[in-house]
Design goal:
The protein is an alpha+beta fold and 196 residues long. It contains three helices and twelve strands. A hairpin with an 8-residue loop joins strand 3 and strand 4. The termini are far apart.
Length: 196
Amino acid sequence: NLVSAATKNGYNYVCVAMGAPKEDFDNDYVDENGAFLDTKAMYDWAYDNLRLVSIASASKIVGEVKVKYGKSADHVTLCPSENSLGLMPKGVTADSLLIIVDEKTVPEVISAPLKKGDYICKGEVMYADNSVAEIDLVASQDVKRSYFAYFIGEFSTWVSSKAFKQGAVIVLVVLIAIAFLGYMVSAKNKKSKKKS
């Protein structure tokens, strides 16, 4: 086994070769450690076939999420939180990559206000149907709160809540009881006036 590191053309590489045999590969009657040969072959392959590529641009819109209580918008667009680079096979460009929103982390709806750069969810950088990186997705613009929409929305939520409904029933029962008692007292007063 062999663990090594190398630097070439400004790139740093780490290589791990495991389980390579020790044998006489070049017929000189000396057993060579196959891990050294495998490591050299892997470094040569990496030097020839990998390039540092932009895998995410902070200015690229990759999705959107619904916004409630937005003053001028009912959704916010998503973009990567920062520009990101990654080692990719030679010939791969940013156009060859796809950034998808991770549906497990994206909220169905988000409340305004939002500031540009606020974290919203995770995204995955995909190449050839394989995930090559996980990134944070953020709001690409500010969304101000509409206080009128916020008040109406919160009032509607409060009115439709279980606690409000229970309280309304209690208030209604109390008002009916008060009205009934008022009627009974009024009827009793009328009877006593008739007797006098």
